[in-house]
Design a protein that fits this description.
Blueprint lengths: L25 H28 L4 H8 L3 H25 L5 H17 L3 H14 L5 H32 L12 H24 L7 H20 L6 H20 L7 H11 L13 H12 L4 H32 L11 H7 L1
Length: 356
Amino acid sequence: MPASTPGDEDPEPEAVAAAELPELDETQATRKLRSGLISLGFLIALAVGLLLAVPGLHGVARTVALMSLPLVLVGVAMEVLSCLSYVVAFLWVFDRAPIRFGAQVALSQLAFGAAVSVGGATSIAAGGLLLVERGAAPARVAERSAVLFLLTSAVNVLTLAIAGLGVWIGIFPGPRDPLLTLVPGAICAAVFVGVLALPWVSDRLVPARRTGRVAHATRAVSGVIRSTARMLFSLNWRLIPTFGFLWFDIAVLIVCFAAIGPVPPVSVIVLAYQIGYLTNLIPVPGGIGVLDAGFIGMFALFDVSPTSAAAATVVYHAISLWIPLMWGTIAFLRLRSSRNEPIEPRPARNSRSSAG
C-alpha cells in the first residue's frame, strides 16, 4: 500500500523522509504488547490493593463507589469518541490507507501507547511495521508518522498555551499563579511559534544547493513541519476530530469530576491535565501510579479537594487506559491474523476530489 501526501497541496517528494522508524519486527511487537499487558495487570492489581488496604485512601475508595454510574458511562462514551477522533486524524495523514485497515492500525497504536513503557516510540514503530509489511515505503511511513506526531502535539501545545495564558490574563477562571499559568502557557506559545519558524530559518542557513547528511536531514524536518502546518491551518473538517482526540479525553476527566459533585473550572482541569501528563514521560506501563500522582499533585496546587481529585483521577485513568488498550489490542490481533490478505489502497485525494 503506497502511502501518499495528505492532500493535493503537499508537494514534498517521496524521497524526503523524517528520521527512520525504530526497528521492530512482528515477533518483537507481539512480545512487547504481551509483556506490557502483563506488567499493566500487575501494576493495576497493586494499585487497587493499595487503594483498599491503606487507611488514608479509604475515603477515595468510598468516593469512587458513590460516583454516578450514568455519568461514568458518559465518560466511557467520551473516551470512545477520543479513540475515533485519532482514527480520523490517522486516516487524514495516511490518506491512501484503506479505511478499515487504517482504523485498525490507528487503534493498534493506541494500544501500544497505553501498554508499553515509552509507548509513544513503540506505538509509532508498531504502526510503521503494520504499514510497511503491506507494501508502504518505509521512508514515506516515517515522514507521515512524524507529521501525525507533530499534528497531535501541536493540539496539545496550543491547548496548554491558550489555557495557561487565558487564566493568567483573567479570561478564564482559576488561580493566577504565574508559575502554573504564565510560564507553561508562554513556553508552549514560544515552542509553537519557534517550530513553525524552523523551515524559514533553515532555508536561510542551509541553501538548497548544499548537499550532505545534515543538509538533507534539515530539509526533511522542514518538509515535515511545512506539511503539518498546511494541515493545521487548513479549512478541513478533519481538524475537528484531530482536536477531539485530546479534548474528548479531557472531557472524560471533567465528567468524572461531575460524577462526584462540584466540578472545578474547566480551565483548571485543562491545566492540571496538560501539565500532569508530563509525568507520563516516566517509562511505566500505562502510567500507573506516576500519572495519577501527577494529576493529583497538580490539582492540589490548584486547591482542588484531594479526595475528589484522587477519585476523579482514578476513574479517569481506568477509562482512558482500558478503552484504547482493549479496543486496540483486538485490532492488532485481527491485523496479525489477516497479514497475508491483500489490501487495495484508496485513490489519491486529488483523484477522489475529481471523481466527486
